[in-house]
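This part of the workshop introduces the protein records we will be handling. A record pairs a protein's sequence with a compact description of its fold. Comparing a sequence with its tokens is the quickest way to learn the format. The record below serves as our worked example for the rest of this section:
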Amino acid sequence: MSLETNDIRITPVAEEPGTATLKVEVPVDRVERAEQQATTFYAKRARLPGFRKGKAPQAVIRKQYRGEIRERMLRELIGESWKQVIDDGALKPIAEPHVHDLKFEDGAPLSFEFKVEVKPELALERLGNFSVKRTVTPVTDDAVAEQIEEMQSQKASWLPVEDAQPTNGQMVSLDIATVEDGAVGEKRPYQIVLGSGNAIPELEEQIMTMTQITLRDVKRQELPALDDAFAGEVGDFDSMDALRQAVRHDLEAHAAREADADVRRQLVDEIITANGLEAPPGMVQRALSAYAQSYGVPDDQLERFTTEFRPVAERQVLRELIIDHVSERESLAATEDDVDARVEEIAARRDTEPGKVYASLQKANQLREIERGITEEKVFAHLLAQSTIDNA
């Protein structure tokens, strides 16, 4: 790749797996034009003693705003240079570039280097002839009963309890004040179901013993009867047997999806091992940073988090690179028709119009997620067709 448009010359200097370095050279006349544009920008806005707004001589503006003019000029030329790289399309950057080795003096050309993370080209010599096992976890009667008990709990009523010590399973409304250095802070209201795991054990112990807690009320849970009326309340079911059958069907579908996901995990691991793949460090670090931000990891735990989650990040990076590689090589990316068909499926399940679903997904920025999901489905269908699946 060698670019030379708008008087700016860009040439590759070095390329390593996951990183590219480009040298940028801007001739004197282009630098001077950018400097003049920056000077004009400040001249129109400057308010200097002895001059009306926008009427100060440019020589005065250059002297007064020398640093600002230089910064604006450099920002413009760097941005224009990077736009040339992107418009060319030969490079596949995955992050914004870093500028290094910037050289600039008055009356001289400008030069600098872009260092940027790029999507590495994988050498995938083997993508098939693997053997993976698909194991579907059986759905037991206990699992069905547990799911129905959860529904029963969600439909429960909460009735007041008078003159009783709080116990596990009861809902308490209380005021709690924090104590720091012996000073009692402002009380705040809380509502907690004891024994649900939503409060730390020490706090629950204080609630049950009424130590330093202001209790406002206690309620006990009254569960509805598991009868045909309950089945009709939680869904369009005419009997408990119909509800149990529907719950079993949902649990079996979930177990099948988990088994399929595990097959994909095995296949990715086989491809990584067979091709000796290593994740680019820069991409791994970016993934770790995203995980840490998503989970709200405090700074003092960041090092430990990074160490523990690095294998997860490395595998996720390689998984995405494999999908991208196969998708591009085999032309398996989701098309506009694919997305439209998926939106129509969603609309049919929701009994609504596809246009409304599309607008909702677009507003929530979820169309890209659907497109990516379809691409993954195509890629794994292609890969699994080349291997053996043992249904255990």
